[in-house]
């Protein structure tokens, strides 16, 4: 009677002929390294022929050793289970792998006789519809194994950080123990219980003849290296993968998280890792120079050990580690030493130089919210010497992006100090003033108006009175407050002289310059056509700056940054295949000789100017770029390139405020850029661009052909009074434009 009622109500299982489980969105680097997964179920769909025999053997040994012999229901198993259950308080199951597939795919976990009948009937139906390999393939990919992992391929990655094909007997036995109770036998959470089950499965593999006695002994003694947050070696590309997720969601909607999309990006794993480490190091170096702001929290430490451990765990759960900036609870503290404990029980002792960043918090006169004392939640980090140092999470933010100027592909992108802490992508979303790093675009415009690298301009005080400005007078300054008299444009750019940039812009006209900068991808409306444009008073994003400098790097072509090279389904169907863009005359932004001349000028900056540390450290002449520091040091930039890579660094506060009187683009952002390039340019041959047609080298300087014999602008501002030469005018006197005028001094 029950069978007659149940059979007509069985679900249609024909869809299993084309098994399509929920598969996450996966994002990969150009080299194929997994960067991120998005979806409720982490699953790597793996055909049965690609699942290693050792993994199949381990599963069959413990779950269903007669899988290939029975017809879906193991009657021997039922008898064994019944006999075993007579003498046990807990029941022993007799489910075959086919029965588990029926239950996991179509039925609830509720235990009653009717569900069991449905399970048996579905099992027979499955065995009729599918062959054994198809059923086993579904099982190996469908089963939940804890840690958000579905299927053994995802579990191998989740627990061991390795592909399934590299699994050992010992690791396979550990994973095979998970289907029975993923939480109870989780090797990370319950290592002792998982170990007992692993040994049992190894014994079962031996009994069934799947392994030899020698292999069993080796497996029993193998030391398993489990994956964990502290040991994970994943590339930090959170901002990039979020960009990809948004792109895919815009195209595929909710299917994005279940369809099994594999997205390959242009990102280089090694370059991304170098960028992440360089930016974090640069920000933390800045943080060491800041005033200590005090512990993040204070907790009371109970007297009993168990209660104290619980209190520490709870506090550190609320203040988790941030990369290599680790959290700890202070156990003892005085002016000479701090003893603290980490969540893993590691004892941290800090003394000597390691205490310097927090001296104000160790003073007897420190206010209560700053005082480092027992129960304080603090941050610590390891120094290069292996000692501990007290630190604090930074308030300052940063951005780094590197693109290949030959095609616009994004090779590295770090949108901030830490994605979990601040998801705002400063590379693409932060509109900031570029300061002096914008000057090269003004000089590029000037080259088309007859200026040459040898044009001499007077670095002397400028003053614009109310009759010129129409409002408040304006008296711009050089960054160092000094004036050095006549110098060439080459020297003026290398030393970032503001007076020279202003006179150049006034001579060519702000409107002409505003039109010119759009060739590099900048938006005219964000750069008002006033003299302050010479000092970088407009707004840019780091991505725009990387695109702009790429034009100089590639000989004058405009490139569009791009990230996705291919989108395919896990089953292999290619949905999107991007073709690498090529540079041709349709994408030309500026003349090749202009790009060559600017590269020569920017080489001077890295050789003898404000970025001289670049060539000195990298020991190669083919690096070019410009520092940028805005008024009151609110933004610190370095933008530069080598012919194969254009990269930009920015550091500043989200709500603009002073970084510090002595903080500059050369001191803050340039070291990050250099650190990245040290890694990214390893093995890359030195490549200086050849002189294009239309330029000549005369008397130690480069000229356009038509200006080589003195036809261009030979000098500007010499022998004149200190007021600015007539020509362009500063911004009219509105309050907003007055702020622009006063904002920049470098």
For the record, what is the CATH homologous superfamily label of the largest domain? DD-peptidase/beta-lactamase superfamily
Give the termini distance in whole angstroms. Answer: 90 Å
The backbone outline, from C-alpha atoms, is: globular
What number is the mean pLDDT? 88
- The total tally of domains equals 3
Report the biggest beta sheet as strand number plus sense, adding barrel if it closes: 6 strands, antiparallel
CATH topology of the largest domain: Beta-lactamase
Let me know the number of strands: 21
Strand content: 5-15%
- The level of helicity is 25-40%
Which features would summarize this protein structure in a list?
746 residues; alpha+beta; Penicillin binding protein transpeptidase fold; OB fold (Dihydrolipoamide Acetyltransferase, E2P); Beta-lactamase; six-stranded antiparallel sheet; five-stranded mixed sheet; globular
Give an overview in words.
The protein has 746 residues and is an alpha+beta fold. The protein folds into three domains: 43-227, Biosynthetic peptidoglycan transglycosylase-like (Penicillin binding protein transpeptidase fold, Orthogonal Bundle), CATH 1.10.3810.10; 291-391, Beta Barrel (OB fold (Dihydrolipoamide Acetyltransferase, E2P)), CATH 2.40.50; 399-563 and 581-743, Beta-lactamase (3-Layer(aba) Sandwich), CATH 3.40.710. It is 35% helix and 14% strand. The protein is built from 25 helices and 21 strands. Strands 4, 5, 6, 7, 8 and 9 form a six-stranded antiparallel β-sheet that branches. A hairpin with a 2-residue loop joins β17 (635-642) and β18. α9 packs antiparallel against α10, α16 crosses α19 and α16 crosses α20. The longest helix has 19 residues, at 269-287. It starts with a helix and ends with a helix. The model is unreliable at 1-6, 88-93 and 720-746 (pLDDT under 50). One of its GO terms (cellular component) is plasma membrane. Pathway: Glycan biosynthesis; Cell wall biogenesis; peptidoglycan biosynthesis.
